[in-house]
Recover the amino acids of this structure.
């Protein structure tokens, strides 16, 4: 699994399988609090290695079989974690490549946890993920794992992952994760290969024991190809489908690399509230809304597929590449995300904190006034802003319109 599976995710993680109350299901509104993303990110992702035995069609990292000789060492990793902690309390995601390729992975996790970071892990579905190693990362203190599953059958999934037997191995890993009693989520990358299989995937997720289903919308970076993306109209159809599912499923459902879903949620909630307010109700009756009052509009907010209800479930403005999100590559390059592979500096030469706060690239990405085209004109640009990595991949300009969006502002 590459870090494609964790870039730009923006929703809450449900810590158990019991259904939540309707108010808890709703996502936080942007104007409830002003998160200062100019000073600290919501999510930090460290690609500890780019080595991986898989060759997935969508891999942002174009992962290689062997580890790079210039990977950050364990000691450099410790210093990086110290800098991450100086941001405060961001979500910390360890990714790859395949993080299990590093024998010192438990040491990395243990150190991050000792610093008070809520730490999550994205292993690949390889022979490295044994029950013994799962127990090791659990003992080290990891809070959650993510498992990638891109089809409800071996035929669909293995064709996407390009390694026969990956589906069966993934199902065994899910079984082992449950055996060691670790919280996990299932990540599914949506492409033209599995769009019609999503209802079947839903049934699989329902029966898996996962606490969350994260649906990732393909970004044509690395091995990802633009022709494998679904159309803008299909994006919109899936967003509305996800909205309906989010109202009734016992696990959380979220979208990643699809900031436009926030706009759909707001539009759907506004429509529902308008329909409700049109019904005649007596003053003082349950559900009565005084004339002129306004409900707060919900939006999805978290980053990289992980957000916990034990203190990190806080209302913020929409996270985006470089705006609440920062990515550190295996060799220390600091990028707005793995989908926007433009290095603004290197942690071997500069402080991560200084790069995030002061690099011109990051400052541009945090200024919605710089957005161009439809994204620049859009009334939802503060909570959405389009996916900057996709805009860059398809137009060559990270400030341009996200081509996957159908909305006309």
């Amino acid at each position: 699994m590459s870090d494609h599976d964790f870039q730009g995710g923006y929703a809450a993680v449900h810590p158990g399988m019991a259904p939540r109350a309707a108010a808890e299901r709703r996502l936080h509104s942007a104007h409830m609090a002003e998160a200062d993303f100019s000073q600290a990110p919501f999510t930090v992702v460290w690609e500890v290695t780019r080595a991986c035995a898989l060759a997935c069609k969508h891999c942002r990292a174009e992962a290689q079989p062997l580890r790079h000789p210039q990977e950050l060492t364990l000691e450099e990793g410790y210093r990086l974690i110290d800098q991450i902690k100086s941001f405060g309390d961001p979500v910390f995601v360890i990714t790859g490549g395949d993080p299990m390729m590093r024998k010192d992975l438990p040491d990395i996790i243990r150190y991050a946890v000792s610093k008070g970071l809520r730490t999550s892990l994205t292993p690949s579905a390889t022979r490295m993920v044994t029950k013994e190693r799962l127990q090791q990362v659990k003992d080290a203190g990891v809070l959650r794992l993510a498992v990638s599953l891109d089809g409800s059958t071996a035929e669909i999934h293995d064709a996407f992952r390009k390694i026969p037997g990956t589906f069966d191995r993934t199902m065994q890993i899910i079984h082992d994760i449950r055996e060691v009693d670790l919280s996990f989520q299932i990540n599914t990358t949506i492409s033209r290969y599995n769009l019609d299989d999503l209802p079947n995937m839903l049934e699989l997720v329902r029966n898996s024991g996962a606490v969350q289903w994260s649906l990732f919308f393909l970004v044509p970076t690395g091995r990802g190809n633009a022709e494998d993306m679904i159309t803008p109209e299909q994006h919109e159809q899936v967003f509305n489908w996800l909205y309906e599912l989010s109202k009734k499923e016992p696990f959380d459902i979220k979208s990643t690399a699809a900031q436009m879903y926030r706009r759909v949620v707001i539009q759907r909630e506004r429509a529902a509230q308008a329909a409700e307010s049109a019904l005649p109700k007596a003053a003082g009756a349950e559900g009565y809304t005084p004339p002129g009052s306004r409900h707060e509009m919900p939006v999805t907010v978290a980053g990289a597929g992980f957000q916990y209800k034990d203190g990190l479930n806080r209302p913020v403005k929409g996270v985006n590449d470089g705006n609440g999100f920062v990515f550190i590559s295996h060799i220390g390059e600091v990028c707005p995300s793995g989908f926007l592979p433009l290095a603004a500096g290197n942690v071997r030469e500069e402080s991560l904190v200084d790069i995030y706060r002061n690099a011109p690239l990051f400052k541009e990405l945090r200024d919605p006034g710089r957005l161009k085209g439809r994204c620049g004109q859009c009334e939802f640009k503060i909570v959405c802003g389009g996916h900057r990595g996709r805009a860059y991949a398809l137009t060559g300009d990270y400030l341009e319109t996200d081509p996957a969006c159908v909305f006309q502002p």
